[in-house]
Write the structure tokens for this entry.
Amino acid sequence: MDRQLEIELLDELRGLSAERSFFMDKEIHRSPVECYTSEDRFSKEKQAIFKAMPNIAAHSSQLAEPGSYLTVSLVGTPVLVARNKAGEVNAFVNVCRHRGARLVGEEAGCKHVFACPYHGWSWDNSGSLRGIPHQDPGFPGIDRAQYGLKRLPVVERLGLIWVVPDLDAEVDFDHLIDPLEADFKWMGMDGMAIAATDELTSKANWKLLVEGGIEAYHFRVTHKNTIGPHFMDNLSSYRMLGPHMRSILPRVAVGELGDVDQADWSIRDTTNVLYSLMPTDQFLLMQDHVAWIRADPLSAGETRMRISTLVPADDLTPDRQEHWARNHAITMATLQEDFDVNEAVQSGLETGVNTELTFGRFESALHRFNVEVEDRIGL
Ligand code: FES
Ligand SMILES: [Fe+2]
């Protein structure tokens, strides 16, 4: 983010605050309940969005060394991501080519050869078949080149490893990642490392969990005992970055910027900046760290969440561990409030009381997000 944009975004919110106004659309919008409850709708989203777009499988720091690997589930596809001797990252479906066992069971580690736990076929970390026990009598004439691990489209950019969990996908990665480049470089994403991670399953549709992050209407209510008092009441703005969204969530200090020399304005010091990447990852930029919230949808009503605290790698020292652990705990406590509310929303949707969710004029980011989803599934 360049300095000019930083000032503009802050000035917009400062002005709205001074006028006691909000960042608003012209009209209210409605979102049908079936969008959050229908398995048919979910399966369309899975095919047209989650399996057709890059998911962030890892931060580059998780695969720092040649030989390092990790496993992750992306919308039901078991994925093995590995860095080879040349430093290149490959992504494979984590399934043995012999009779289909899960090839790698560990979450992460470092090795150059993966041997299947069932009959011992083995592959190197570029996906080439290395060994078949008793090959000559058992598999005469087998063409080993046909039995490489099945590759998934992958790129490493901006300090992140992006994988499309579909063997047949043809994806223009740059088209989807380029709009984030300026902001993610400014944020220093490629120089970060993970200080703490938690995982949980939320009984809520993945879109409810995104929607809960891109409006500040609920801050003073849901988060009254945690972060709410530190933020301006019901004030936020957003811009699209390609299919992704950058939301600015101003803290109370933005209301006082009129008394501060513009040269001293800092968006990091006075707001939280939330990047909601279509489809699955949110990055919440705070003063000295980033909360990375990744959603792996399991069904219309259930979403696996992984929440990591990313910090500057050179600040991940033993004496700072407690500071980062405390920040991670604050993030988790706040998000738990969101998860609790959204689980109740999901079960409330099933009652039939509402046929649609109603988005107020200052909740227009939610409508814009749903437009993006609907465009992608061809509605
Ligand atoms: S299933 Fe993997 S070696 Fe047989
Ligand atoms: Fe929230």
Remarks:
- The radius of gyration is 23 Å.
- Residues 16 and 307 are 32 Å apart (CA to CA).
- The chain is about 25% helix and 30% strand.
